[in-house]
Amino acid sequence: MSKLTSTYVDGDVFAAEDGSMLRFVGGKSEGWDAKDPKDQVLRPAPSYSIVASGTARREGDLYGFDRPNARVIALAKSDGTYHGQYRLAGESPDWTDLRAMYVVPGAEGQPATLVWMSKDGVNQAILVAVPDTSSAASPGPSSSPSGAPAKATPKPTKKP
Prior knowledge:
Strand content: 35-45%
Number of helices: 0
Largest sheet: 8 strands, mixed
Number of strands: 11
CATH architecture: Beta Barrel
């Protein structure tokens, strides 16, 4: 427990612990494995520090903040399948001091919104994927299997 950095509870308990993403059901962590984005050629494997979601148990995605790579990774809550990754547009440093986050699911067919807190206040970004420019991947709500990064454009909200 000393390396636990974040939890999310929706009936199952998801945890970021020592860089790994885990799911506990009935006190056990078996039957679920966070899949890698398979982009280790571009950046190191994820090291999760914060976990969030906005959907019901075993529905939709779980979002993990990978601080060393300045990205948010979406994984299926049901089985840990990699669904996409998101980075702030324009190499923005706004996630440098990300302290907490939550996700607001989009209306039917719309992308989710990530809301995060930093020392500078509360911010939000719509999680929009961009196509992989190195292949013939088509645009969609999640990045391509090759792990091409997606962009999220920050939209600052009123600061306290």
